[in-house]
Structure formats: C-alpha cells, structure tokens
Amino acid sequence: MTAFYQPLGNDTFRSTEHTVGPWGPDSQHLGPPSALLVRSLLALGNPSSSLARVTFEVLGPVPVADLTVSTSVERPGRSVELHAASLSHEGRAVLTARAWRIVDSDTTAVAGGDVPAMAPPASAAPMEIPDFWGGGYLAAVEWLSVSGGIFTPGDAQVWARPRVAVVEGFEPSPEERLFSVVDSASGVSSRVDIRKWYAINTDLTVHLHRRPVGEWVGMDARTTIGPDGAGLATSVVHDEEGPVGTTAQALFVRER
After folding, report:
1. Residue 72, class by beta-carbon neighbours within 10 Å (0-12 exposed, 13-18 middle, 19+ buried)?
2. Is 174 strand, coil or helix?
3. DSSP 120
C-alpha cells in the first residue's frame, strides 16, 4: 500500500496497515485520521482561506477499519468561518474536529514574533527504531532527530516526513503532511516507557499562523507529567522556512 487510506466512495475510506499505532494492532495512531479530517476540511472551505486553529476530540480508539467522514459549516462568514468534521466507524463517531478558517490578506508589513528556526533536516540524524515497534505508522514516516526522539525520554527536536500519501491516488497537501505527524509531539517528547506506561492524548489542538510549505515537519516538543495522572505535551511546529504554529495535547497517564 502507498497510502494511509484507500477511497471506497461515499466519503468512506479503508484504513491500511500504515495507520497502526503503538497501543495495539487494531487501533490507529492519531496522525493519519487527523490528516484525513483536515483533508475534508480543506475541501469544504474557501480555497483563499487558511486554517488558523484545528481542535480534535478523541472519542475512542480509531479502529483499523472502514471509516466514514462527514463535514459541516457551523459558522459561515466572509472573513472567518468555523467548520466541523467527524470520523465514524459503523455509525459511531470516534474522532471529531472543529476548525477556524481565516480568509487570506496581506499582513507582511506587521509580520513577526517567531521563535528561532530549528536546525534543518539536512543536519539531523536518522532515528533508530527498536524491534518492539518497527512497523505500522512508525515505519510509514521518515524520522530525523536534531535532539532526543521517540525512544529517548524528555524534550526533543525532531523532523518527520510521511513516506505515503494520506489517500491513495491523491498527492497530499502540506497541511495534510503536517497533520499526519504533529500528534507525535507527545510521543517524541515522552517521559515514560510506552511498554510500561500509557500516555494517551485525549485531544489535539493545532494553531497555525501561516500556511505550511514543503514535505518536512519539525516538532520542538516537550512533555510535562503531573502527580495526579494527567500530563501536557506541547510543541512549536516548523517547516523548512521556520516556525509555522504550535500544538497542545492533554495526556491520560497510567501505569499499564
């Protein structure tokens, strides 16, 4: 397979083996379904508007199965719109998204405030993948480490590039590539061994201050775990031109 999903028609998609996540062979990493919903949101909106914020609510494990996408416009407008999308399996919603879109305008004269750019992908090293998780989603993405990484506990700077399309037969947009990987911020900066602990995000919020470009997505990520079973993962997201936005994820943390 060359994609996370195969189109079946009627807004239904068949999940491939590339979507399989770390928690079991029957559930997906959140990256591919997030990208699938963003793909539908981009098709719904005005092409001269940009995604400013997308929030995903994880209603349950996303199964490696046939999934159906539905979309709606919650708040139409000339300059700002609020759109919604839902991913369902056998009639039950497993993931929802709500997105604010802002119509493009020229703000070059006042643009600024970015943090420093990450070291480029060319200066990063390939990450080693351990035998206990060497397939599925992890193998469908190319991973490079500036510092830290998926199996090194603590803060990390990582570049990622999907090796496959989101939907078979369609070239992914830069936004689709970005959303394919940014849920991994909590994984690359994890402070726990996933063989011994659950650290599962209940949501994902992505704010973008400009449109992403190119194939590579950088995450300058960090995770904080509190004493009461909850955590917070955040990242500054980059492309090869510099920072493009931020992410935040609430974490459910439990010993296995």
Report:
1. exposed
2. helix
3. P
